[in-house]
Specification:
By secondary structure, the chain is α+β, with helices and mostly antiparallel strands. It is built from three helices and eleven strands. A hairpin with a 5-residue loop joins β3 and β4. α1 packs across α2. It is elongated and about 70 Å long. The relative contact order is 0.16.
């Protein structure tokens, strides 16, 4: 999982703790983890986590938004033996898209994308829960077939995901997103 709800979205610290709401029980003093008491009243807008480093408070949704904002680019490839292979490189920071098809008929296409396209692409990745995909999807009983790989370039680190003849449940939606932003077939 790439999204760490407990990592502070403001200063990136892991010196954080959950915020508990309601009347504290007597046993809370012996609670083995650090917690911040949020008060007796509970409301839908309450923050869920607290950073001991910068005193920031946030919700899971804010942590998710921060994780997707850190995506600077995506490199994706899919293909296999005796079929076309596709490659897409989405540079969100540089606002450029590269698409390639190799195999029988080779093609290459590069285009510039607008800010609104980049923001829409990120919002669609969030809807398919892209960052929470497992790191690998393998079907061990099929030889050859189709393989795919994805590199998610983010601030701080690159996340790699791959598969062989197995896919996340939202794989087809992901391929559709790549087709839309590259303006070419992918997958």
């Amino acid at each position: 999982m790439a999204i760490s709800y407990r990592r502070c979205p403001k200063c990136n610290s892991t010196d954080t703790m959950p915020i508990l709401y309601g009347e504290p029980a007597e046993y809370l003093g012996s609670y083995d983890k650090k917690v911040k008491l949020g008060g007796c009243m509970v409301s839908p807008d309450d923050k869920e986590y607290y950073c001991d480093t910068c005193e920031n408070e946030w919700t899971k949704e804010q942590a998710i938004d921060a994780a997707y904002r850190k995506i600077k680019g995506i490199h994706a490839e899919v293909g296999g033996y005796m079929i076309h292979s596709y490659r897409a490189e989405i540079d969100l920071a540089g606002r450029e898209v590269l698409w390639e098809k190799t195999g029988y008929m080779e093609e290459k296409f590069i285009r510039t994308i607008e800010d609104r396209e980049a923001k829409h692409f990120i919002s669609q990745l969030k809807l398919i829960d892209f960052l929470n995909w497992k790191s690998s999807y393998i079907e061990p009983y099929i030889l050859d077939g189709t393989q795919w790989s994805i590199e998610v370039i983010r601030e701080g680190r690159t996340i790699k995901k791959y598969g062989s003849n197995a896919y996340p449940t939202s794989w087809l939606l992901f391929c559709e997103l790549l087709s839309n932003i590259t303006m070419r077939e992918f997958g």
